[in-house]
Amino acid sequence: MRHPFLVSLCLGGSVALSACQKPDDNSVDRAIQNVNAVDESNLSDVMLTVADPNEAVAYFNRTLKDNPDRIDIRRGLAKSLIRAKRHTEAVAAWDEVIKHPDSTSEDRVDLGDALIRAGDWERADKELDAVPPTHETFKRYRLEAMVADSNEDWDKADSFYQTAVGLTTRPSGVLNNWGYSKLTRGDYAEAERLFGEAIRQDQSLFTAKNNLVLARGAQRNYTLPVIPMVQTERAQLLHTMALSAIKQNDVETGKGLLREAIETHPRHFEAAVRSLRALEG
Q1: In angstroms, rounded to a whole number, what is the distance separating the alpha carbons of residues 242 and 97?
Q2: Which listed residue, 107, 111, 118, 169, has the most CB atoms within 10 A of its CB?
Q3: What is the pLDDT of residue 14?
Q4: pTM for this one?
Q5: Residue range 47-133, CATH number
Q6: Within 13 Å of residue 192, how many CA atoms lie on the same side as its CB?
Q7: How far apart are CA 8 and CA 161, in angstroms?
Q8: What φ, ψ does residue 84 adopt, rounded to 5°?
C-alpha cells in the first residue's frame, strides 16, 4: 500500500528538482556574454602578438566601430599601427586614447613613443614632460633619455639612461643605446665599456657587437674584442673594422682586414670583395 505513495513522492521530487535546475534567460545571457568576453580577449591578445600587423589593424578598426567607447580596443588599434610601422596613424590613434576619461600615464608614454617613431621629437618632449614624476617606468626613462640625446643635453641623457638600466632585468638594449650616445659624443672608451656590458647581458645582440668594433676602431684599435661570435659574425665585424680603419686613412690595415673578412666568411662576402676591389682599383 505504501508503494504508490513512494512513487508519487519520487516523481514530485524529480519535477521540483528539474524546476529548480532550469536557468532563467538572464543567466544564460550573462553566461554567453562572459564566454564572448573571454574569446574576444584571447583574440585581441593574438592580434597584438602573432597576427599580421595589418590584419590586426583591420580587426581593431572593425571592432572599434561597434564599441567606440572601449579604451582597450583603441589601445589595441594604436599598438597594432605601431607594429605595422604606420607611425603617423599611430600618433592619431594614441591621441584618441589619451582623450578617453580612463586613459593612464602609460598611455601618454606610449604616445611619446609613437611621436619619436614618427620623428616629432619636439612634441614627444612635451608629452613626456606632461607625465607625472611619480610614474617611474623603464619605458618612460628610456624615451626620456632618447629625447635628451636628440637635444644634446648629455647630463640629462646620462641620468635617464642610468635610471632606465636600474628599472629593467634586460638592460642590453638601453645599454647599447647609451653606448651609441657616448660614441656620437666622441667618448669612445666609455662607449666601448657600455657596449661590452650590453653584450654580457645579451650575447646575441649583434648591433652592440658591431658598435663595439666601431668604438675600438675609432681609437685605432684594430683587433677584434674577445666576445662570443659565430663565423659569419666574425667576418662582418672584420669588415666593419676594415671600413673604420680606411675612414681614418689606415688604408693598408683596412685592406688586410678586408682580405681576412673575405677568407673568414663561410660564403661569398660580396660587400667586402667590392670594398677591396675599389681600394685596389
Answers
A1: 49
A2: 111
A3: 42
A4: 0.80
A5: 1.25.40.10
A6: 17
A7: 81
A8: -85, 0
